[in-house]
Q: What sequence folds into this?
């Protein structure tokens, strides 16, 4: 499958593709089609990219449950939220060979997300345990609401770059707040190509902290 | 409400759902929920490093913000 996306920077365009296709960054290839510079001193830029998905798979978006497993998981997640005392509708946001992303539509999405996404993560963890019981561990369940997952990803990558700049400036290491493995991987990946910067996870357990430190002279 | 939530989640996690029992002890400022499951299923409601128990406590707190009352989950063995 090939699609085109635009953004102010290459990164913006890639983020748009990720949001639209519901894929991870490593699941497609990016080709830069066009870079337009306009305005005074070429300040405003527009980058057009062409995205090639590695397989011939195309994500299914906003679809209905198709089998007992999907019905079972949707019922379970809906059942939990209902018993928490909130009204919500659950739909399939997208489906991949080993992933099922459910979208929670609710007026109470703020409380369902919780501080730093902790409520959404807890619901997601329980949904995955039950999914594992229903189906083995082959399918990972992702819960999202109000595009929280992609918004959180963007803000973490922004944070990584801010901290990276600060470390380069001050030549002193910085320790970030505790994060789950997925979030830490985003930070490591965001800074991996930046010269004179290295990252390392510190601490024990699920929620480790990433330290960003200066490696230059 | 919170009692039904614990009951519902616990039943989905265990092998012997008929042995799931939740007792509610109503206090003035907080509610205590006592969860009892069959001996074989205790690990299933606690999880590695207590991850599942922690997730249940998290969604319980989220449910309790509606009433403003603190809810404590105790897993009995």
A:
């Amino acid at each position: 499958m090939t699609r085109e996306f635009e953004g102010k920077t290459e990164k913006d365009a890639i983020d748009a593709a990720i949001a639209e296709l519901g894929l991870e960054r490593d699941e497609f290839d990016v080709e830069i089609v066009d870079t337009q510079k306009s305005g005074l001193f070429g300040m405003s830029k527009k980058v057009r990219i062409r995205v090639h998905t590695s397989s011939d798979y195309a994500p299914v978006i906003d679809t209905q449950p198709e089998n007992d497993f999907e019905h079972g998981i949707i019922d379970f997640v809906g059942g939990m939220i209902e018993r928490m005392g909130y009204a919500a509708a659950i739909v399939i946001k997208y489906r991949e060979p080993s992933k099922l992303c459910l979208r929670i539509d609710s007026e109470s999405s703020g409380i369902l997300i919780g501080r730093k996404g902790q409520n959404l993560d807890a619901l997601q963890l329980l949904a995955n345990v039950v999914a594992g019981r229903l189906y083995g561990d082959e399918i990972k369940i992702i819960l999202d609401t109000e595009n929280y997952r992609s918004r959180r990803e963007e803000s973490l990558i922004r944070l990584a770059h801010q901290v990276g700049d600060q470390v380069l400036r001050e030549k002193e290491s910085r320790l970030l707040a505790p994060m789950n493995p997925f979030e830490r991987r985003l930070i490591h990946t965001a800074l991996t190509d930046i010269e004179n910067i290295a990252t390392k996870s510190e601490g024990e357990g699920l929620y480790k902290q990433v330290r960003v430190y200066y490696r230059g002279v | 409400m919170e009692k039904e939530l614990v009951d519902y989640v616990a039943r989905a996690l265990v092998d012997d759902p008929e042995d799931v029992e939740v007792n509610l002890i109503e206090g003035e400022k907080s509610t205590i929920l006592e969860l009892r499951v069959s001996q074989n299923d205790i690990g299933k409601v606690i999880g590695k490093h207590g991850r599942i128990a922690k997730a249940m406590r998290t969604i319980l707190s989220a449910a309790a913000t509606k009433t403003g009352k603190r809810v404590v989950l105790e897993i009995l063995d």
About this structure: Chain A has a mean pLDDT of 87. Residues 148-170 of chain A form the longest helix (23 residues). Helices of chain A lie at 10-21, 68-84, 109-113, 118-135, 148-170, 181-191.
